[in-house]
TrEMBL record:
Main location: secreted
Name assigned to this protein: Corticotropin-releasing factor-binding protein
Record domain Corticotropin-releasing factor binding protein N-terminal: where: 5-81
GO BP term, pick one: hormone-mediated signaling pathway
Lineage: Eukaryota, Metazoa, Spiralia, Lophotrochozoa, Mollusca
GO molecular function: corticotropin-releasing hormone binding
One Pfam family per UniProt: CRF-BP_N
PANTHER family membership: CORTICOTROPIN-RELEASING FACTOR-BINDING PROTEIN (PTHR10278:SF0)
GO annotation, cellular component aspect: extracellular space
InterPro entries: CRF-bd, CRF-BP_C, CRF-BP_N
Corticotropin-releasing factor binding protein C-terminal domain segment(s): 107-219
Keyword presence, Cytoplasm: no
Keywords: Disulfide bond, Glycoprotein, Secreted, Signal
Source organism: Pomacea canaliculata (Golden apple snail)
């Protein structure tokens, strides 16, 4: 795994061992690379293929736009098919920071995944309210769980699970509406992986701002008692 620019080479010894190189960058950066040279025996079964994370298949050499761990992939098929191309999905290695998700009026799903248990504090939300024409569905500063619309639901989801595939996560909370002030309490997501997603139908300009921080030992213990599947 590396985040340093440079030239990287791999020469197989002829065995069936799998070698992987992860190229990483900050959540607001894109990774660019150029294949300068490769020598693959196609007649012997070698194959060079490009996949995004939602279409990974078996091959001898693969370039994956996303993260793979033990056969699980992020972004999942629920998120944008273009992987990280739209800078809408990110795997965040931070223990305490503030994130903002926006759809800019597009029909897309955006997910921030954190690879450890966290507390999520909602700072502000405007979901399923403001349209492109400037009209609003409601002016109340209130969140709701009734988020269905004509082209699907516009909502945010806080979820948790084991592994990278967010399509298998359990949802701790889902909501839409408006909130201009920080929430009084945070939500503990105590599994091995945590995710905050913004689902958008394309009818509204949605935005979500939240803060993540490590849970206390008492908060984590209470979560694991309520969700024993996260203890395995």
């Amino acid at each position: 795994m590396t985040g340093e620019p440079g030239e990287y080479w791999f020469t197989s010894s002829g065995s069936d061992a799998v070698c992987s190189l992860y190229l990483i960058a900050d959540v607001d950066k894109l990774v660019e690379f150029e294949i300068m040279e490769f020598d693959i025996d196609c007649e012997g079964g070698g194959l060079f293929t490009y996949f995004n994370a939602s279409t990974l298949a078996r091959a001898f050499i693969q370039v994956v736009d996303g993260w793979e761990l033990q056969g699980q992939l992020f972004p999942s098929s629920l998120d944008i098919p273009g992987g990280f191309e739209a800078t809408c999905n990110a795997l965040a290695p931070f223990e305490a920071t503030v994130f903002s998700l926006k759809n800019f009026g597009f029909r897309r799903n955006c997910t921030i995944q954190i690879v450890f248990p966290v507390n999520v504090l909602l700072l502000s939300a405007n979901i399923g309210v403001a349209s492109e024409t400037g009209s609003v569905r409601t002016r109340r500063d209130r969140l709701s769980v009734n988020c269905a619309g004509p082209l699907g639901a516009d909502y945010a989801a806080l979820s948790f699970g084991q592994g990278l595939d967010t399509s298998d996560f359990d949802v701790a909370m889902g909501f839409c509406g408006v909130r201009s002030k920080p929430a009084r309490r945070s939500v503990t997501l105590g599994c091995g992986n945590s995710a905050v997603s913004l689902h958008s139908s394309g009818l509204f300009f949605n935005s979500l701002r939240f803060e993540v921080s490590p849970p206390s030992s008492e908060e984590l213990e209470a979560f694991l008692l309520a969700h024993p599947q996260c203890s395995t």
